[in-house]
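Bug: token stream looks shifted between consecutive jobs. Job 1:
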Amino acid sequence: MRKPAAAKPARKKPAKVKAVAKVAEPAMDVAVGRRIRDLRRVRQFSLETVAARTDLSIGFLSQIERGLSSPSLRVLATLADMLGVGIAALFGASPSADGASDQVVTRGLQRPELKLWRTGVSKQLLSPASADNKLNLFLVHLEPGGSTGDELYTHDGEEAGLVLEGEMMLTVDSETWSLKSGDSFRFASRRPHRFSNPANDAKSVVLWVNCVTGAG
């Protein structure tokens, strides 16, 4: 008499991993793109004009304005210069209804944020939002490995900052410094520069000031 075959243990189905939709990032790209488009139209610049003055392709500019491409900080700084504003004007934040720029206080829960999610860099605007502001205060967050990119870039103005948490590598011209919590810096923004977080497991936070000298 044949013995019944032993039942094979049921194979466990692999647990389904739910995809985490990155809703916030594309929405941020759309908001920034819309703000760039609005500023361009106010100044009555065509895409062709912007492309010629920034060395960016018309197709790339169109993608940025439609929120289909997430520009780097270097590209945003280039566009801000060309549009005659500080980079804070690209945050998509709406100034007061009457267009006045006399707001004094920015509440902690009302900070506009520019999240460059592809590069691991985000900037919170601490000062009141206005395209006319010459002096802007930011809280910059650098994710582990976050960077402005390998290419040095320049823009109008001056900048200074204080590392609050973690570590930051700062390159200005041909010199590079490692800055840790408590270290500070200042340089003219027309000097080629870049910055990054060299840590693999820790975020860095920097209080950053930008002073625009040629906008407006």
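Job 2, same session, no restart:
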Amino acid sequence: MNVWLQITDTAGAVLVFLGAAICLLGVVGMLKLPDVLSRSHAATKPQTLGLLLVLAGVALRLRSGMDLATLALIGFFQLMTGPVAAHLVARSAYRTGQIERGELLFDDLDAQLTEPGPEPGGEPEPGGGSERGRGS
């Protein structure tokens, strides 16, 4: 067997092992952390890094063009969907009151959710309802 193939196979096995260990740490974090935001962080960051390491290890082992393209697509879609899903879980937990708002360092969503809207039963003003920019 070629020495370079043996080196890449060994490096691939090490990457797969490291990726699996990082994924395991993410699962432990999901089980042990106390609140939704911490669990969401533990579910997203280590899982994404662990999966990318596993994909890199498998890519070093397979070395075929079609296999590498498939692994690249898997990595791309993981990077696109993982953070979005975690964001949506955290936002829905915030909106349903499962988050202690006093423990947040910044609460930018509170200003968006508590903006005064039109009064119930009131008529909307003609022209969009904005007093700004009118000459009268």
